[in-house]
Design brief:
The protein is an alpha+beta fold. It has eleven helices and nine strands. It has two domains: 3-67, Arc Repressor Mutant, subunit A (Orthogonal Bundle); 72-255, Beta-Lactamase (2-Layer Sandwich). It has helices at residues 3-6, 8-23, 29-35, 40-52, 69-82, 84-99, 141-148, 152-160, 175-188, 230-233, 237-255, and strands at 27-28, 56-59, 64-67, 102-109, 112-119, 134-136, 191-194, 201-209, 215-224. Helix 7 packs across helix 9.
Length: 261
Amino acid sequence: MDHSQQDGTVGKALLMLDIIADSGTSLRFNSILDVSPFPKATTYRLLQTMTSQAMLSYDAESQKYSLGMRLVRLAHNAWKQASLGPIAAPHLNQLASAVGETVHLAQIDNGQVLFIDKRHTSHRFETLAQAGRIAPAHCTGVGKVMLAYMQPEQQDYALQRQTFIQFTNTTITDKQALLEELSSIKREGIAYDKEEHENGIISIAAPILTSSKLVIGAISIATSTSRHTVDDLKQYKDLLINTTMAVSVEAELYLHPTSGS
């Protein structure tokens, strides 16, 4: 028996999500309808309901549906509990203790940064970034460093989803300027947030890369301009990169363990 029928509306909704997720891209309504086992009216109603609940996202310009940020957050929270979050936790603790500053763990999806974890050793300042919160990629250290290390097709997709909203006087507000910044970041191996998202908050960020150079996350060290300058953050570069490399090695062992004898 078709479980989508047996499980009622929830089963039908999940099947719609599967159709879009399995396609690996965003889809127009007619493309979804072509493979949907449900009538046109039912398919449309399911898509509208999931869009209103942010499980799906609808782009009016392209008239395409894609996975929504609520679904992305659920997926990332599940992944946090299953792999990257717990794997990174002791390394984040160690890094935060060593530098005495705030440390963030983040991932990117659909062009947006999702903060997975946070450690702060100082209560003298606070950042907007909190575990479970979403932020733009174009103006955050973790966002820019993950964009820089994306594969070209993924990067182009993510760049199309940047709003380039100007949060401060130093926010990058156009694609070409950001592309130039990303090239520099990839050469340096790190990114800086020079008060681009929040006035008074700066950071240094490095990517978490697999052995095949796929970016699966990023870690940043953030501080207040009342405590440090951007130049001061350069002293943390080696320690930060060593931390991301350690997380990467453990993540690959966890996600792709070798079979034992």
